[in-house]
Design a protein that fits this description.
216 residues, alpha/beta, Rossmann fold, six-stranded mixed β-sheet, 12 helices, 6 strands, globular
């Protein structure tokens, strides 16, 4: 028992995150993985959030995506998430310091009511509300592949043109194909190929950019 206890690394609470990123960096190096410099902070934040090194291979960026996302936030873009969990995980204080607001319409009672009355999905109504925002919008989907499919259909129909899409829903039904659809559009994106993802990952991607901006 003492031998096991002696393996505990003594790290000050304020240094735990820093130490975690040091471990992630070392393990990436040991695996022979070199991340693009402009994407590194985002991918490492996703790994830090999940303890899954697969993100180093599956997190997919459109051309210049990290810099485009950073510029959007710097210029006050709003964020729309598909879950309140993702909404709660985003550092809204930093986002608002650049003039941006975060929204989630999925849990609103009137959204459910309207979707039922029209015989459509809540995701459709939510994306329509996102289209009604008068600012550039970053759509962050971590749970509902239906939201990505709806988004794709609306983009093709010219009903919405988000400034950026974060597509990282998790699961088994329509998850992989919904992500592939987003990568077929001309909208800048960060997508995680495969089944993995989640609301926490969607928030982590945004926070990676927000924290980097806050550090200056």
């Amino acid at each position: 028992m003492k031998e096991l206890r002696d393996k505990i690394e003594i790290v000050k609470p304020a240094d735990i995150e820093k130490r975690s990123f040091e471990i992630i960096g070392k393990e990436l190096e040991e695996k022979g993985i070199v991340l693009p410099e402009d994407e590194k902070h985002i991918t490492m934040r996703a790994i830090h959030t999940t303890a899954e090194f697969d993100y180093a291979k599956t997190l997919t960026f459109s051309e210049n995506a990290a810099n485009i996302l950073t510029s959007l936030i710097e210029n006050g873009a709003d964020v729309v998430t598909d879950t309140n969990m993702a909404l709660s995980g985003i550092n809204k204080k930093i986002l608002s310091s650049y003039g941006g607001d975060a929204h989630c319409f999925m849990g609103d009672e009137d959204v459910a009511k309207e979707a039922k009355e029209r015989g459509t999905t809540k995701a459709t109504v939510c994306m329509e509300r996102a289209a009604g925002l008068k600012k550039p919008v970053i759509i962050a989907v971590g749970n509902a592949p239906t939201a990505l499919v709806t988004l794709y259909d609306m983009i093709l129909a010219g009903k919405i043109k988000p400034a950026f899409i974060i597509g990282v829903p998790v699961g088994f039904v329509n998850v992989e194909v919904s992500k592939e659809l987003i990568m077929e559009t001309d909208i800048p994106y960060i997508v995680n190929r495969g089944r993995k993802g989640g609301s926490n990952v969607a928030a982590a991607i945004l926070n990676a950019v927000l924290y980097k901006l806050a550090r200056g």
